[in-house]
Amino acid sequence: MELAVIGKSEFVTGFRLAGISKVYETADIKATESAVRSVLEDRSVGILVMHNDDISNLPEILRKNLNESVQPTVVALGGSGAGSNLRDKIKQAVGVDLWK
After folding, report:
1. What global pTM score does this model have?
2. 5, exposed or middle or buried, with CB in 10 Å at 0-12, 13-18, 19+?
C-alpha cells in the first residue's frame, strides 16, 4: 500500500522531500477534484493525505465519499477541525476511541 498526498504546492513539498512518490500538486478546486477521483480509483493507495481546507472545498458528494472511504483511508491535516477528523478515522479503523 502506498501513501498519496493531494494539495497546493506549500502543502505537498514536505511530503515530496520525504520521498513520497504519489504527490498530486493542485492549483485549483477542479484539479483537486480530478486528483481525488484518480486516487480513489487507484487500488495501490492505502492512505490519502490532504489539507482539511481542501477537503472542505470539495463538492458534498465527493466529501461524503472521502469520509466513508476505508481504502484509501483519508487523513486531513491542518486547518480547522482536523483533529476531530483524525480521531473519527482512527475510531472507524480500529473500532475503539483511543482518546478516551
Report:
1. 0.78
2. buried
Q: Is the separation of the CB atoms in 28 and 7 below 8 Å?
A: no
Q: What is the pLDDT of residues 3-58, one digit of tens each?
A: 999 999 999 999 999 999 999 999 999 999 999 999 999 999 999 999 989 999 99
Contact between 71 and 29 (Cβ < 8 Å)? no
